[in-house]
């Protein structure tokens, strides 16, 4: 009996670690600061709204201040159609933290991850960008990167998830909500892979 329990515990640990690494790849993890080669700065930092939008925005601003790029692209429509778009709220947050207006572009039409990628594509194409850093929540990173890579196949899309936000963190697996997000994303990734709705 004890061997079975130990075996189940090991399997659960492997699943948790595997899911965490799969859902939240971080291409900047090995880079302490912008440099050369794989750690070279990008043409833009793209932050998509949803989940904990403030945490995503703050992480994009942090990367901007570390000089990973001189341009922020904020993407997302209004959650409440009577108020500001998410992108505009993200821009205002960036302005309050000292980012100049001329260094921010907003895209405020997208309501889904696919739409984020489709709408931001026009900015990437118009400016002939070759490399972007994509910022979103950890649970959302793999799917967001896949959507963007599909829309801009000639552009290097570097993933950089928020390490912790109000919905996701190192201990995500201790809550039903964490599992709901993880399994939900796996299903959406599966639908993306077979060309379904996302």
Which terms would index this structure?
198 residues; Rossmann fold; five-stranded parallel beta sheet; globular
Describe this structure in words.
With 198 residues, the protein is α/β, with parallel strands linked by helices. The chain has a domain of 132 residues: 3-Layer(aba) Sandwich (Rossmann fold). Strand 1, helix 2 and strand 2 form a beta-alpha-beta unit. Helix 2 crosses helix 3 and helix 5 packs parallel to helix 6.
What value does the average pLDDT take? 93
> Biggest β-sheet: count, sense, barrel?
5 strands, parallel
Question: Would you count the extended β strands for me?
Answer: 5
By secondary-structure content and strand pairing, the structural class works out as alpha/beta
As residue ranges, the low-confidence spans are none
* Count of alpha and pi helical runs: 6
Question: Which strand-content bin applies to the residues?
Answer: 5-15%
In the sheet with the most strands, the strands line up as 3-2-1-4-5
Helix content: 40-55%
The CATH class of the domain at 35-166 is: Alpha Beta
Radius of gyration: 18 Å
The CATH homologous superfamily of the domain at 35-166 is called: HUPs
Please tell me the CATH architecture of the domain at 35-166 by its name.
3-Layer(aba) Sandwich
End-to-end Cα distance, whole Å, is: 43 Å
Instruction: Identify the overall geometry.
Output: globular
The succession of helices and strands, N to C, reads HEHEHEHEHEH
User: What is the CATH topology classification name of the domain at 35-166?
Assistant: Rossmann fold
Keywords: Membrane, Transmembrane, Transmembrane helix
GO cellular component, one term: plasma membrane
Transmembrane segments: 5-24
Protein name: YdcF family protein
